[in-house]
Write a structure and sequence with these properties.
Strand 4, helix 4 and strand 5 form a beta-alpha-beta unit. Helix 3 runs parallel beside helix 4. The protein is built from seven helices and eight strands, in the order βαβαβαβαβαββαβα. Strands 2-1-3-8-7-4-5-6 form an eight-stranded parallel beta sheet, sandwiched between helices. It is of the alpha/beta class.
């Protein structure tokens, strides 16, 4: 039976505003495992025995956290299954993608977010959670970067879009039924703040005017190439209401997992 790997990356040391995203992985897992909710994806996969959980990376040990993330992600990928990383802030995507790229010479990133996260640096920090996609594209860790849901674009971002040939669908231009011309395996980077805060208040940077949960699920379910890895980042429980955002994050993990199985040829059930 096809499986999905899970790895918690509880690191928020590069958050520019509020800390708290490091607490997310066990809270998302709790909602994933809760008997209150269905274990099935909408695409017809029973996920109750599909996940192989590699636990959380231990950042209390000495050493470079970026190297540890890259190494632990590589170890999880060596199991041979698609991987969903649970952040953590968005800075983790850079070392995660270093490990993913070594295994996938053709790769498209589908980045769903309110923010481009492509500053050259923010607050003199090139590892800021506002900067991972600048590092990712500098290192050519993907062939294409598609960013969807953006609603905080400034002139520096536009310069970076041109520099790295980023394909952008601003939230104000988003239309239901958007189809992407995908031609390679896909990495999904899912920032919870892509959703409108009415649906996901548990985030550090609330930006009104975002996606509904259904619109994000529609984007995920519209992917027609193999999804080889993903991250779900920026859930901040300190800002949540009645675990609402943890539940949304868990739902998106399930739908990403279901599409991983579907696009990689698993049998439904």
């Amino acid at each position: 039976m096809s499986k999905i790997s899970l790895l918690g990356i509880p690191h928020d040391g590069n958050s520019s505003w509020l800390r708290g995203a490091a607490e997310a992985p066990p809270l998302i897992r709790r909602e994933l495992a809760s008997d209150a909710y269905s274990s099935w994806s909408e695409t017809g996969f029973d996920l109750s025995d599909r996940f192989i959980d590699h636990g959380d990376i231990d950042f209390t040990q000495p050493g470079n956290p970026w190297e540890r993330i890259e190494s632990e992600v590589g170890r999880a990928l060596d199991a041979g299954h698609p991987l969903i990383s649970l952040g953590g802030d968005h800075a983790i995507s850079w070392p995660v993608l270093r490990a993913v790229r070594r295994r996938h010479p053709s790769l498209t990133i589908l980045h769903i977010d309110a923010h481009p996260d492509i500053y050259h640096a923010y607050g003199d920090n090139p590892r800021s959670h506002t900067s991972p996609f600048a590092r990712i594209m500098e290192e050519r860790l993907a062939d294409r970067l598609i960013q969807i849901g953006l609603r905080t674009i400034n002139d520096h971002h536009r310069d970076q879009f041109r520099r790295f040939d980023v394909e952008v669908v601003e939230m104000r231009h988003f239309k239901e039924g958007l189809r992407l011309d995908l031609k390679t395996p896909v990495y999904v980077s899912m920032d919870i703040d892509a959703l409108d805060p009415a649906f996901a208040p548990g985030i550090s940077h609330r930006e009104p005017g975002g996606f509904t949960t259904r619109q994000v699920i529609g984007l995920i379910q519209g992917i027609d190439q193999p999804i080889v890895a993903a991250d779900v980042v920026e859930y901040n429980a300190s800002q949540d209401l009645s675990n609402q955002t943890a539940l949304v994050a868990a739902k998106l993990v399930k739908e990403i997992a279901g599409m991983m199985l579907q696009t990689n040829g698993a049998t439904v059930g």
